[in-house]
Amino acid sequence: MRELLHRRQWLQQALGWAMLPALSLAARAQANGALPRFIAAWQNGAQQHIGQLAWTGATTASGPQLLPLQSLEVPTRAHALQQEASGAILAVARRPGDWLVRWLPGQAAQWLWIEPDRVFNGHLLASADGRHIYTTETDLADSQGLIGVRDARSLEKVAEWRTGGMDPHQLLLDSDGSLIVANGGIPTQSETGRRKLRLDHMDSSVVRLAPQDQGALQGQWKLSDPRLSLRHLAWGAQVQSGQARPGQARPGQVRPGQPRRWLGVALQAEHDEAEAKLNAPVLAVFDGASLRTVAAPQALAGYGGDIAFTGTAFAVSCPRVNGVALFAPSPSGADIQWQGLQPLAGAYALAATPPSDPPASPRLWVGGASEAFALDAAGQAAGVAPASLGAIQLDNHWLRAQGS
């Protein structure tokens, strides 16, 4: 009954929130068109928001700031976001979550609440043809992972595909139209919230599904350490030709001579032993044939938050050691190697610059606990003054807004 009331209250109030004058005149006056805007989720006091943030120029006494241009209050923390061609923002609740929303500033928000026997796992993705929205979900009856296939207009579910594991998190489309999904592998129950259960039964994996064949499982890859949860994904540079390992390709994977891209996977360690967790890797890479971890010469606390590709390196945010870890392809292109750690307190949200931007522009925008900064392709400060977050507590992910 409380859950039904919770939903009803939000549906009744959503129109009012969506139509509030969320555009701050001060933020609009200070926003610098030469600096980016971001689609983000954040907390301000006790309230959770999604919307658009502007990176202002150094026009205030306190220097550059990130200020809300548009915002919508949401019932719980949001996780992944996406901006559609119309400018509308899609956002889904942090796992285990029960809401999905589409919001175009100035219009009423379109809310969807998940079925009682399912929970959202925090990520969504538009299909290649734009007709569907894919959401990662868990079936509460057996704790198994699902891809919810939803009509792109109504957001209503039209099909479900099993992911071959538990706790599916982020998902990406490959160039051949297949769907790559990271199964986090952590058993949970909705009544315990985010409490993790039976970690000795973890079963994390990367899987390839075929949307053109009702989500059929085409391949599955696991790491040798079962206590590493595979969570966030980013496509990287093309794997150099001739690097395929003989005998490791399977049906539905790569064909000999087929171009392949590195796939970076951010890891979160769930070991019982503190030392094992402290020294656990934060990055795994998949080359189309094998999945393996990438070593770092320093302890990163076994926690990779977000992941992005700068154009030359994978960046993995590591909030527990207050920095962004950088890993780049070796000179031969046959492997991925450690490059260093760029410090930032509470580093988490990462947004890569579109490839169409000039090469000299900043390649990565990083949000931390109290400020945000930009990095160039080499992972060094990009000459843009850090922006203060003020009262905003940025959440796990953000992305560059269209046209910025």
Automatic annotation (TrEMBL):
Domain of life: Bacteria
Comp. bias regions, Low complexity: 245-258
Region (Disordered) residue spans: 239-258
One Pfam family matching this protein: DUF1513
Signal peptide residues on this chain, from the entry's feature table: none
Protein name: DUF1513 domain-containing protein
Biological source species: Acidovorax bellezanensis
